[in-house]
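Researcher: I'd like a candidate sequence for this fold, 446 residues long. If you have to choose between options at a position, lean toward the conservative one.
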């Protein structure tokens, strides 16, 4: 979209997901991914057809529904089907593929820009229908989440899936028993299918999440919503969507040069997500999150300074241009080594089994809301306080994010999904966070 906007505005003369939890509980995680990919396909086709702004807008909205489903269900499915030792890596794969998709989008934009005006931007948007179709077909071959199967009372099917995805029969049996306990099923139950209470099947959990949450659930909800809020409140939407405009303000001229410069943003994100995926299960979520946020603060402050100098200079400042590009790439790198992948890994693993789909959907709804707010307001804010001032503002928000992550997000590395809830168990007299290494309850590290 970032590249297509340059030409779409010229051609058409334009001036510029809460239900997913219910769906995933009823039709399963796997078929929710299929539904998301169908929405992607339809939205991409409409945008690529695009005879008018209204049709492009409808296509964008349809694709947006797919985004809402996919952003909730992909990390949720990855977390539920993976073991504790590899959950960080596997749950970060959606973010890795988003970074890869962004890079491919930037590269394809550069080459499609060489086509005619009416054809180029349509291919930029419509080409997404191809991977959408591949996703829909590939999802049909994936096993269903064993945790969702157990929530439906389908114990024999869940055990078969666990035997497929676990390294040993012992590990499969251990995970099977842990999930049964979390779902409030007798661990000695050996029936193939059991009938579960309505509450266990995912109904009535909204009251437990929002109206009468326990102190533990309240803290988990705060952590899940907070990390999703800060992912976009720190400005990534503005950088990704308006990177050509940022580089233009810095002094880059020509549409092709602008598109080529944005390829570096994609490369920086992809490289850092690969690094993060390799480190999430080794150094932990919290360390990457804190280090990445500190790097974002430095990069955003530098970008704000360089853009301010470039904007007020009477002639082109080569050093400001180069430094702005480096700062933008640096921001994309540090975002994608910390906040980008950790947001989806962390929020997919902290909610208890009975609340996981609904909790994730609230987080994704906040995520999409902030994405929209930043995307829509970026140009207005940059006009009001200058584009340099806008990035100073994002640097300030990042400082608040750093404080929030330090005080409210304990480490979850190496814990099973069934154990993580204990990390957030609160006791007024014994709650102590030991600088991110865990929570000490009554003097014992959990």
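Model: Candidate sequence:
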């Amino acid at each position: 979209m970032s590249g297509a906007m340059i030409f779409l505005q010229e051609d058409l003369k334009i001036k510029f997901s809460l239900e997913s939890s219910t769906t995933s509980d009823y039709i399963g995680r796997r078929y929710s991914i299929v539904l998301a990919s169908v929405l992607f396909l339809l939205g991409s086709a409409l945008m690529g057809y695009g005879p008018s702004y209204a049709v492009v807008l409808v296509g964008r909205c349809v694709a947006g529904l797919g985004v809402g489903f996919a952003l909730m269900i992909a990390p949720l499915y990855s977390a539920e089907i993976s073991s504790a030792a590899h959950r960080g890596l596997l749950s970060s794969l959606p973010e890795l593929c988003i970074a890869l998709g962004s890079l491919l989008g930037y590269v394809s934009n550069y080459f499609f820009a060489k086509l005619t005006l009416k054809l180029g931007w349509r291919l930029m948007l419509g080409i997404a229908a191809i991977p959408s179709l591949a996703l829909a077909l590939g999802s049909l071959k994936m096993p269903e989440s064993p945790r969702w199967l157990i929530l439906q009372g389908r114990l024999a099917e869940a055990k078969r899936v666990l035997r497929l995805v676990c390294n040993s029969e012992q590990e499969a049996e251990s995970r099977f028993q842990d999930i049964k306990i979390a779902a409030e099923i007798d661990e000695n139950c050996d029936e193939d299918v059991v009938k579960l209470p309505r509450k266990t099947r995912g109904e009535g959990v909204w009251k437990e999440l929002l109206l009468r949450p326990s102190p533990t659930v309240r803290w988990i909800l705060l952590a899940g919503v907070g990390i999703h809020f800060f992912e976009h409140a720190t400005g990534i939407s503005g950088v990704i969507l308006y990177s050509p405009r940022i580089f233009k303000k810095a002094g880059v001229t020509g549409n092709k040069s602008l598109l080529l410069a944005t390829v570096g943003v994609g490369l920086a994100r992809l490289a850092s997500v690969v690094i993060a995926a390799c480190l999430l299960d080794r150094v932990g979520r919290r360390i990457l999150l804190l280090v990445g946020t500190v790097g974002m603060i430095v990069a955003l402050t530098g970008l704000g300074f360089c853009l301010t100098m470039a904007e007020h200079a009477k002639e082109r400042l080569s050093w400001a241009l180069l430094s702005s590009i480096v700062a933008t790439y640096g921001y994309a790198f540090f975002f994608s080594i910390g906040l980008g992948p950790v947001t989806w890994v962390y929020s997919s693993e902290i909610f208890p089994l009975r609340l996981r789909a609904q909790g994730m959907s609230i987080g994704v709804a906040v995520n999409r809301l902030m994405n929209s707010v930043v995307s829509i307001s970026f140009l207005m804010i940059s006009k009001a306080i200058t584009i340099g001032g806008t990035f100073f503002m994002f640097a300030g928000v990042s400082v608040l994010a750093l404080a929030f992550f330090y005080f409210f997000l304990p480490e979850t590395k190496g814990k099973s999904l069934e154990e993580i809830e204990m990390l957030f168990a609160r006791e007024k007299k014994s709650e102590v966070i030991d600088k991110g290494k865990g929570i000490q309850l009554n003097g014992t590290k959990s």
